[in-house]
């Protein structure tokens, strides 16, 4: 009788053990998937980003079936030299120097926000690539944790030029307009290689809120910011700073 009870107990524990065995495999599989995902995109140009896909779904969810994403890939060396330096001057001036996280910028942003001023982010270009390419918009701890993980992978597996190249191609410069090439054609009917320093600066100037600001009809804020970006780009040493 006692032996039968022991056998039943053992049998009852097997499904639970199998459940736990599969449960710990899920995060391991996701870990491996993320590493492979980032490794592949070192050499394969992404056909779209998660932010693009979510924006398209959002439009369809609102009943806007005519909405289309504008996205065209361009290699970094096929863009005007003023483009990458403008992006770095506007968003992450220590980009060539940090390992994906700029602790000084984060500290300054926290101090700035604590004073009740307009919210300022401390994200690097690497962090923004992680968010735009693989994740979603928002401020949850889950997203921030995944963003940090992807940022570590990006910095470990991609050279800085690749990070900047993907950023220039997946950043949003207008509602549904992603990447410098799509923006150049949509706004000025020209190729990204023919963008002027002023046009590059205006594209970088709208990045805080591309659906609110316009690179082609810049208001006072965008124009002041574009002028500041051009000054900063010169002070950093011009295009050679990011080469």
Topology at a glance:
Layout: H1 2-40, H2 50-61, E1 70-71, H3 82-91, H4 103-114, H5 125-134, H6 141-157, H7 160-170, E2 172-174, E3 177-178, H8 180-188, H9 197-205, H10 220-236
Helix pairs in contact: 1-6, 3-9, 3-10, 5-6, 5-7, 9-10
Tally the helices: what do you get?
Answer: 10
- Helices and strands, in N-to-C order? HHEHHHHHEEHHH
Helix content: 55-70%
Distance between the termini: 78 Å
Average predicted local confidence, pLDDT:
87
Oligomeric assembly: single chain
Tell me about the largest β-sheet. Answer: 3 strands, mixed
Label the structural class.
Answer: mainly alpha
Gyration radius, rounded: 23 Å
Total strand segments: 3
Based on Cα principal axes, name the global outline: globular
What ranges have pLDDT less than 50 throughout 5 or more consecutive residues?
A: none
Question: How are the strands of the biggest sheet laid out side by side?
Answer: 1-3-2
Share in β-strands: under 5%
The gist of it:
With 243 residues, this protein is an all-alpha fold. It is built from 10 helices and 3 strands, in the order H-H-E-H-H-H-H-H-E-E-H-H-H. Helix content is 60%, strand content 3%.
How would you describe this protein?
This protein is about 60% helix and about 5% strand. It contains 10 helices and 3 strands. The model has no long low-confidence stretch (mean pLDDT about 85). The longest helix has about 40 residues. A 3-stranded mixed beta sheet has the order 1-3-2, covered by helices on one side. With about 240 residues, it is mostly helical.
Keywords for this structure?
three-stranded mixed sheet, 243 residues, globular, mainly alpha, 3 strands
């Amino acid at each position: 009788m006692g032996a039968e009870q022991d056998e039943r107990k053992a049998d009852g524990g097997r499904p639970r053990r199998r459940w736990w065995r599969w449960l710990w495999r899920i995060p391991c599989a996701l870990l491996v998937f993320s590493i492979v995902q980032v490794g592949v995109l070192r050499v394969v140009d992404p056909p779209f980003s998660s932010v693009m896909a979510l924006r398209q779904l959002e439009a369809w969810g609102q009943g806007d079936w005519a909405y289309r994403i504008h996205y065209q890939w361009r290699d970094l060396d096929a863009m005007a030299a003023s483009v990458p330096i403008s992006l770095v001057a506007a968003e992450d001036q220590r980009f060539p120097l940090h390992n994906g996280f700029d602790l000084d910028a984060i500290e300054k942003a926290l101090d700035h926000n604590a004073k009740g001023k307009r919210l300022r982010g401390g994200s690097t270009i690497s962090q923004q690539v992680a968010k735009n390419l693989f994740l979603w918009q928002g401020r949850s701890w889950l997203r921030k944790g995944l963003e940090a993980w992807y940022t570590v992978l990006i910095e470990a597996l991609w050279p800085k030029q690749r990070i900047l190249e993907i950023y220039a191609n997946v950043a949003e410069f207008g509602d549904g307009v992603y990447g410098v090439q799509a923006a150049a054609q949509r706004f000025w009917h020209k190729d990204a290689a023919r963008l002027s320093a002023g046009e590059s600066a205006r594209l970088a100037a709208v990045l805080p809120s591309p659906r609110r600001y316009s690179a082609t009809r810049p208001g006072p804020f965008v124009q002041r910011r574009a002028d500041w970006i051009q000054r900063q780009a010169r002070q950093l040493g011009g295009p050679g700073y990011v080469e």
